[in-house]
Amino acid sequence: SRTLRNALPIMRWVSPRSAGAHLQRGAQPPLTNNLTIPCDVIFGCTDDHAGRLYLNRVAHFYLIPVIDVGLVLMPRDDGEPGLLEMAARVSVLFPTSACHGCRGTVDRVRAREEDLQRSDPAEYERQKTEAYVRGGGNPAPAVVTFTSEAATMAVNELLAGLVDFRGGGGWTWQRYRKLDKGFERSQAAQPRSDCPVCGSEEYWGLGDIDPFLDRIG
Fold first, then answer.
1. CA geometry: angle at 168 spanning 165 and 172, to 5°?
2. 104 or 136: which carries more pLDDT confidence?
3. 143: Cβ–Cβ under 8 A, 6 or more apart, which residues?
C-alpha cells in the first residue's frame, strides 16, 4: 500500500533487517497527513525522565528517529574523592527497537514526579513533605567537556545511520561510554510484550490523535 511504501524508506534507513521483517508481516502503520512535528530526526538532550518518556512516544507515533543523549556524573557516597559513575549514553529510539521503558533508561516514578512538579507545584510540595515524592535528587551534570563528548557521540550515531561509516550495518540502538575508563560498549534490550509503547504496533505511525500521544495530563 502507499502507506507502507511511505514508511519503509524511513525504516530501512534505521534498520534494513527490521524493515524487511515488517514488510513480510504485512503490517501497515497508518501515517498521518497532518504531522505536527515536521522534522526528520530528533536529538533528545533533556535532563529529566518525563521529557525522555515524551520523546519515547514521539518516535513511535510519528516514525521519527530520536537520538537521546544521557550523561551521568555521580559522586561517591563514602567520603572518598572521585566519582562513583562517570558515563555517557546514546540511545536510538524507533519502532522495532526497545523503548526507554523496556531498556530501563528512565524511571517512571521520577517522570510522574517531574510532571507533577511542572503541572501542580503546590501538590508536588505537599507530597514531598509527606514523603510521597523524593524531592530534588542529584543536580543535572553540566561539565562542558563531557557534555560535548556525549553530544559528539550522538552526532556520530546519526552519521552511522546515514552512511554506515563504522561498517557495522548502521547505527547501534544503545551505546554506553565510561568516560573515566576510556571504553565503550553496545547495549541491547528487547521490547516487553506488555509494554504500551513498543510491545505492539498499535502506536506505530499513528500521528496526530486526541489526546496528543495518547497521554492524559
1. 95
2. 104
3. 73
